[in-house]
């Protein structure tokens, strides 16, 4: 991939527009990033995108920022990381500066709250779309262990409300144990 | 100096908010309400409302909101940089090791275990947003969400959007803007 001005501009614009639409929590940026960088631009493959998200989740700080740093670094090293970070940080800076100035008008505007309510439906739809695609890939892999991890972690997160960082650490440790030790020992028998 | 205080406070917020999102909330509250009296309780409540309604990580929203209040635009920029700095350092170190050692089979095992877990975590975040969308809430805040009436207009919008996304591979941003405009027309006018 050639790293010209056009590449950096596309990276910046992608980070900026994804951040501007990350409504309702950090994880929302993940499906958006996947759609943009994996499906549309084809800069990163599916597996790697999930690896990057897992690592972003295990570091402190906003997931959206972390994921954006990792994607930028993966694509163009330090300069890529810097550009995507700035792109991600700018929308909240601009939007909150404006809103802090016109807060009362903003809070009481019916059209704005209706607009935001409507957008939430779109956000939910985008996440559903991406989850269907990702879950399908895991099920299609016919790897029973992966499918089991997916089901167990989903139940842990939704029903038992277990901390995301803990889920990441435990599944990573389980993967290390299962694939490196247990499975290898089994193959030698 | 006020800028250094702001920087250090938000550096701490960035550094200790592991798990993202609302995990940062108690920490932000501690820094801007208790350690420094930068916001009043009402202003803090306003900050939560704004964060819920606008895009961007809550840590960064708080940085800008508090930074602007305390020291204008330079304050906002310095707070944002402070908040992002720990992530930058730690994630870059992790990135370096990840790209250096990702081909090792032991790391491959870890990653193979992680990927399905990440799908679940995204699904669980999606589920909470879907819950917010499907049920009518009085006042747009997670804190006072009431699971009373079902919002059928939202359900229809979600269903149509998912259909368009899957069938025509539409751009997610266009879909979100579309549902926003539809929402403004439907909820705003009637």
Following the backbone from N to C, one meets helices and strands of chain B in this order, namely HHHHHHH
Count of helices of chain A?
A: 8
Number of domains of chain B: 1
Give the radius of gyration of chain B.
20 Å
How many β-strand runs of chain B? 0
Helix share bin of chain B = over 70%
Distance between the termini of chain A: 45 Å
Per DSSP E runs of 2 or more residues, the count of β-strands of chain A stands at 0
Shape of chain B: flat
Largest interface: A-B, 103 and 98 residues
Secondary-structure-derived class of chain B = mainly alpha
Pick out the low-confidence regions of chain A: none
Name the poorly predicted regions of chain B: 138-143
Structural class of chain A: mainly alpha
Tell me what the structure shows:
The complex is a heterodimer of chains A (189) and B (190). With 189 residues, chain A is an all-alpha fold. Helix content of chain A is 83%, strand content 0%. Chain A has helices at 5-20, 29-40, 46-58, 63-101, 103-108, 110-140, 144-158, 164-188. The radius of gyration of chain A is 19 Å and the shape is globular. Chain A starts with a helix and ends with a helix. Chain B starts with a helix and ends with a helix. In chain B, 78% of the residues lie in helices and 0% in strands. Chain B contains seven helices and no strands. Mean pLDDT of chain B is 81; it is low at 138-143. The chains are: A mainly alpha (189), B mainly alpha (190). The interface between A and B is large, with 103 and 98 residues.
Write the layout of secondary structure elements.
The complex is a heterodimer of chains A (189) and B (190).
Chain A: H1 5-20, H2 29-40, H3 46-58, H4 63-101, H5 103-108, H6 110-140, H7 144-158, H8 164-188
Helix pairs in contact in A: 1-2, 1-4, 2-6, 3-4
Chain B: H1 2-16, H2 25-35, H3 41-53, H4 58-101, H5 105-134, H6 152-168, H7 172-189
Helix pairs in contact in B: 1-2, 1-4, 3-4
